[in-house]
Amino acid sequence: MSVYDQYHKRQYEQPYRSISLINFTMKHITYNKIYRCLDVGCGAGANIFHISKKIPFFRFEGLDIREDLIEFAKKMQPEINFHCADFLTFNVSEKYDIIIAIQFIPSVPFDLRDFIIKANELAKEYIILTGLFSEGWLEQHTIAYDLKENWEGMYKIYSLERLKEIVAHVIPNSTIFIEPFNIDIELPKKSNQFGTYTVKMQDGNLLQISGYMLMPWYNILIKKEI
Fold first, then answer.
1. What are the strands, taking DSSP E only, across the chain?
2. Whole-prediction pTM value?
3. Range(s) of the domain holding residue 171
């Protein structure tokens, strides 16, 4: 089993800090009804498992292109409707209230604009995502290789300024909320393995590093005017 697969399946036992966007989400969503949600790039479904416990008025479905992870998700959560499909070609007869994409956009081959356009097509009210972003106009796209595990992965750091520009053009009647994700636990560096660890800076904040790359994670919520 690859390191990537282990990451997805370990999440059921111990939720990762990536689902800390729960508090961020709760600050910006009116929770007076049941929301129909699609988790894009859901992997093995663990984020759905944990978020559903904290936000019971979210009714989830999951979407991922990897059949093996979707089959695992179905075994773990048979009550959830999981779809094995390509996000850009995925279509439904009725829009979802919310599209959620956790750590999805940094690792897919298509551009941030393509994601926003498709998410806008599928979402009635909200688009929620976590991603790697710079505060200016700089972007960096990196391919990482783990030669021992025979694994490679894409890491895209997008520009927050370009994100705002894209959203303003694609979803003109919308409000965007942006919050940096500050991790609150120290993660040790694992020898000879690819994975996220933290380094404490002089101001006491923790800097996330994966392999040899900085991980500037942000929580993003786009509220559409309906």
1. 35-40, 58-64, 81-84, 96-102, 123-134, 140-146, 151-159, 174-180, 196-200, 206-210, 213-214, 217-224
2. 0.90
3. 3-182+216-224
